[in-house]
Design brief:
It is built from three helices and no strands. The chain has 71 residues and is an all-alpha fold.
């Protein structure tokens, strides 16, 4: 729990600073901050998707499903 709490605390500190720097870099426009959030969310989703696929290569051979015949 301590590691998760530490990660959340660090993210709570870094996220507003990063978004503020991006807004300043884009001359006050929020477009850069939105694209930063969209891209980082996409990377997190991709990593979660790839991590969920680990170890499931032999799932179908280990757990065959019977499919009823359709007339």
């Amino acid at each position: 729990m301590g590691v998760v709490n530490l990660g959340m605390q660090v993210a709570d500190f870094i996220a507003p600073l990063t978004i503020g720097f991006v807004i300043d870099a884009f001359d006050g426009s929020l477009n850069g901050a939105v694209w930063l959030l969209v891209s980082s969310f996409g990377v997190v989703c991709f990593i979660a998707f790839m991590a969920s696929k680990l170890g499931k290569e032999n799932f179908m051979t280990e757990n065959p499903q019977t499919i009823p015949a359709v007339k």
